[in-house]
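2024-03-11 09:14:02 INFO receiving multi-entity request
2024-03-11 09:14:02 INFO entity count = three
2024-03-11 09:14:03 INFO echoing inputs for audit
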Amino acid sequence: MSQSNRIGGGLIDRSRSLDFRFDGRTYQGHPGDTLASALLANGVRLMGRSFKYHRPRGPLTAGSEEPNALVHLRVGARQEPNTRATVAELYDGLDARSQNRVGSLSFDLLAVNDLLSPFLAAGFYYKTFMWPKAFWEKLYEPIIRRAAGLGSLTMQADPDLYDKGFLHCDLLIVGAGPAGLAAALTAGRAGADVILADEDFVLGGRLNSETFALGDASGPDWAKAAVAELASLPNVRVMARTTVIGAFDHGVYSALERVADHLPEPLPGKPRQTLWRIYAQRSLLCAGATERPVAFRNNDRPGVMLGAALRSYTNRWAAVPGKDVAIFTNNDDGHRTAEDLVAKGVRVAAVIDSRADAPRTNRYEVLAGAVVTDASGRLGLTSVKVRLASGETRTLACQALGVSGGWNPNLHLTCHQRGRPVWNEALAAFVPGGTLPPGLTVAGAAGGVMSTAGCLASGAEAAVAALADLGRKAKPADLPEAEDAPVRITPLFHVPGRGRAWLDQQNDVTVKDVKLAHQEGYISVEHLKRYTTLGMATDQGKTSNVGGLAVMAEMTGKSIPETGSTIFRPPYTPVPIAAFAGRSAGKDFRPTRLTPSHHWATEQGAVFVEVGMWLRAQWFPRPGETHWRQSVDREVLATRRSVGICDVTTLGKIDVQGTDAAEFLNRVYANPFAKLAVGKVRYGLMLREDGMVMDDGTTARLAEDHFVLTTTTANAVGVYRHMEFCRQCLWPDMDVQIISTTEAWAQYSVAGPNARKLLQKIVDPAFDISNDAFPYMGCGEITVCRGLRARLFRISFSGELAFEIAVPTRYGDALMRRLVEAGRTFDAVVYGTEALGVMRIEKGHAAGNELNGTTTALNLGMAGMVSKKKDAIGSTLSEREGLNRDDALILVGFRPVSRDETFAAGSHFIAKGAVANAANGQGYMTSVAFSPNLGHTVGLGFLKNGAARKGEILRAVNPVQNAETLVEVVSAHFVDPEGERLRA
Amino acid sequence: MLIPHPLLGPRDAQEFTCLGDASLIDRPDWQADNAVDRFHDYLYLRDNPAGVHKELWFHEQGDRSWLVVTRDTRSHEIISAELARDVARARGRSR
Amino acid sequence: MHDLAALTPLGGTQPKTDRIGSVVITEVTDRALVSVSCRPGGAKTFGTAARKLFGMTLPGPGSWAAGDRWSLIWTGPEQWFAEAPFASHEDIARIVKAGLGDTASVTEQTDGWVRFDVEGDGVVDLLERLCPVPSRRMTAGAATRTLLEHMGCFVVCRTEAAHFSVIAPRSFAGSLHHAFCAAARSIA
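2024-03-11 09:21:47 INFO inference complete, emitting structure
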């Protein structure tokens, strides 16, 4: 294949050729090419179809602002939609396909939309498809979704890795054009920690696209030397292929580094992209400027592009989109393009300059005071129609037209904290204004300084100022002599006339659409944007916003600054969702916490459940057990019959010490703690200040000034935070110190009639754990297995005779194995969270389902525990009338009237014969389990005035599953209501 | 955001948990005549201004200090950050 | 002497070491750890007792210090973690409490935590991918608690840009190890 449109020069490596495919055809390019430049070099101008009308389109730009040349890049699971061909680096084997078409790119069946355009103008959604209503969801929307759209997803999992990271610097410089490089040299030589980030893969910005000299060197050579010096400085981090996408509070920036997008696929173990969070003391925006087009009829023909893009393709990539090129401009920049093309030997058909006082030259024809009124060539430009100053029309044959409408500073990051740009008449453009993000300054073209010399100087000066602000001295870098031409522009945003003139090519918004919006009263810029969708595509209107605004200004008869301006939000350019996820994908979505018996449980084939970040054994299936209920029933029955062991390490443990520790606990718990004896444990009910129950647990007094309390697994973090709040903010002079000790101890519950016998085989004989020496709610520091320090608590969640034994976590695995071994004599089982849940429901113990943030001590049947004799968090507000009504919800038990029936948690209680609605609700079921001891389903629930309603028959109604069961109100204590077992 | 920790310097806000209005330090006297009303106001009638606001932040993934951060809720400008314990003492809280 | 075998936080019988590229990740299990909080009444006597017991002045916010046997990390206002060899100090809480008496609250922390040491030329590149603290600017003697891949950890700089310890809740050992290895492969 020949690269028919390739000319000499450029920053491409001609010593190597790269094969690539576009829409199934193979082409060749060179390292240094983008997909767009390589296609243009091969004579391909048509690269995509437009969003709404399926108009044939080619690249408008040569950078990240591209609205048109969006492609599917790569195949299979790595296929990425909406990739801008103008920034996709060419690599050997690149495979891209055009998108948003039905049929081929040159014969798209949906191009019929273009003929229907009178019906598809701005706001067509809101008008055309209003009626009949039912048609919207079923008919119109699916069709529109299919027809209008961009790329498609593969629906396969992304096989690549994405990384995240955090960087700190004194000065972040965004953009490595002349201003950014001068700033980086200045700050880098002064020894400051500098990050220089640029979205391009070759640093230098416009220097690589222009032919100006900087002193004795060419632009690209000067940039290359500057980058080489910066890279050699240990205090400077040069980041190519890195887009700073957002400016956040307090000098925090976000940047996307495309680590491997220029490779066929990332290297093994390496990320495809890295999302950086950059903490910058000061930052400097040197993001340059973006050229904007002038709208005229059919200005979206493939081959019509921005003048500066044409210059970039010619100078940097040695690719010219056509043999005959015309220029349409309202400022001197168009002539710069013409000069460069002539110098490269490209035929310039004419420069159509809308200004009557256009500069004259004999190197090419200048049509002063003329405008382009139409473009022909559906699949590629063939000619343009020009209205001359005389009023005559002339047709110029050309395959490419460079359009120069003036330059817009890339001020996007200055808007990320709601800074509003201001209009600059001399540039006919918005420049940064309002309140900039604190610590951010702007230099170079991004700040409206348009000449190369000006950029260099403003970059160096801004770096000096930024460092001075940090108390550091720096000397501006020595700068070469450079081009210093003034901006000469006579604003022109669109050429009036018939037909459709395109403003926003990505969202297919025309001058007519803006006029329509105005006619219909959408004159606020924000309304205009939303009604026409102008600027709302993935390019955020980088080339179209100002044009749209100018047309609206013309309609309203106001100036552009009076009409308004829109601001930008992050990200500057599109970012894959995967980059935001980083490594937190799949099983690594969040970290996992493992219990001390995890390895043992895994060996046993345990089924695990996630409880917060913890993985807990849910049950331990044995051979032959095919249903989870078989395992759970066995574990429950064996525990109640003999003895069971359960890992309860995940419960939060908080160490509380100090001479005021007892008084402190007395205030954070609703029930009294001051008089708890050393060596004893007490159940504690912790309220929120509003009187609702926050958490419950047990607290052991190990010494006069030393307690250990437990929290529920789920609330460990919140309870600790709350206790620190009480300690630091409410009672700052109390002598109390708290610290979490959850994971320092492996803690196992040993429960069942044989619990003591089992433990006696483990606990060293020096410690008497008989009922007399170690009664219910006793605790103590002991040793086990011949000398290992341990803690023993006689507490019970299951209702059985039970202990909790704790050893340093590293010995947890060994202790579990020892307990299981010692338990063989008793047919001991190890039980999981499911059996734990069944037993606590059988015993009527409240847990998370009951402590749901809406329940009080009274609701739980524990009103008597809230001491009125002391100050405690929540006790005052728990006295509020509304929380103490006679018909308050009270926790009671439920069983099915027909014992073989069952019911579900969440069911609501309705009286027999009453309509099942909210008004007739009597309460709700919170916890339900099958009790293998009783042989039927049991439930706990809150029932109005429940304590007085034992024996009553109600309906447990479950409208979600359309089920209802007759239930009897019973005591919540299904097993051992007198508590004889746990005191045995 | 960055929170200027009085002991540790600027720290990423993701290390913190925010509780809101720092008036939660001024917990009423439980033995006052109208204690229920006072607690009601203390708990529910807290300020949430558009402007300068004193807030409680907990350095949960740091040194476990509660801080009183004075912040402009419109611009996120942080005017000061103090240890809540010092603020509490200055407001007369003790034991 | 009891006969229960200890497991490392990663679940092995011996601590694990991984070499990936220029980074060495080591599970450190031979240190005992205890938290020490100064009680308000005894601030003065606490300082004297602590200096005598640990043989050094207590480090201030954001820092740590080491002596012959002990090393101390500032963990919060009036609170430190003290580290000593496990072999000689397994019952570290009792030892420290005996030395500090009622001037301090002392809590055993040894098995509440996992310590990984990360060493090598790439160690800062590794930490930059995992946590927001400015590890590149930390010098020997700096220590701070922060978030690392959603896990609350202490990051302790032993040797500038060359050797750090990361001390995290023990139950996170597997996830933290995975994070280190993944980040090390990404920079290798």
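2024-03-11 09:21:48 INFO post-check: The longest helix of chain C spans residues 173-187.
2024-03-11 09:21:48 INFO post-check: The mean pLDDT of chain C is 96.
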